[in-house]
Predict the structure.
Amino acid sequence: MSAAKTKPTGKKPKFKRIVLKLSGEALRGEKSGETIDPAILDRVCSQIKAVHDMGVQVCVVVGGGNIFRGLPAQRNRGMDRATGDYMGMLATVINGMALMDCLENMGESVRVMTAIPMEKVAEPFILRRALRHLEKRRIVIFVAGTGNPYFSTDTCAALRASEIGAQCILKATNVDGVYDKDPRKFPDAKRYKHLGFVDALRERLNVMDSTAFSLCLDNNIPIKVFNLNGKDSIVLSVVSDDIGTLVHA
């Protein structure tokens, strides 16, 4: 059954070009047990479409943790780290294709671009081609991470955002922003509305992994952390200052 269509807010978007970072786990259905839950996929894609319909150029970086995660495989199974990471990158391709199919069924024009060549499945990532897709009002989905082991999809999001000149990375999580301590353990945890890069480093707050965070810091790319599970949270993160935490210079 399809999710309810996301309604326009009437507010103007604050960004012209964004990278939306989705974890693979976000697509997993806790109740249904499905690796890619159709209802969740439909809800996420309807919001991506709504943001795109506002005139925002949208790129998506998706993880593969709902299918396979390389680091736990190394720790728990003794698997070679590089092998596990490559398997995780291939998992992101499956998620990217699912997003593409759902968005195309909603009438959107979509391109999947991969850092690992697989010409029968997706286009290779070429920067100028990606920019051309955005100019032609296509949604671009980046898969296979950076194409290298030992780098997370957070790093991929930061790298691609730097390359395409995105104005913000929207990081969808399971908490509604960045806190001074774990809100699931401490009821008095304080959520930041705005946070400086230097403050986040000083307080050792886990916004992104260190490589991704350094890229955002060096290239002055703001990161907006918000809860994906909130109603219309992707749309609201683009038009409102009242949702999530904005980490910036």
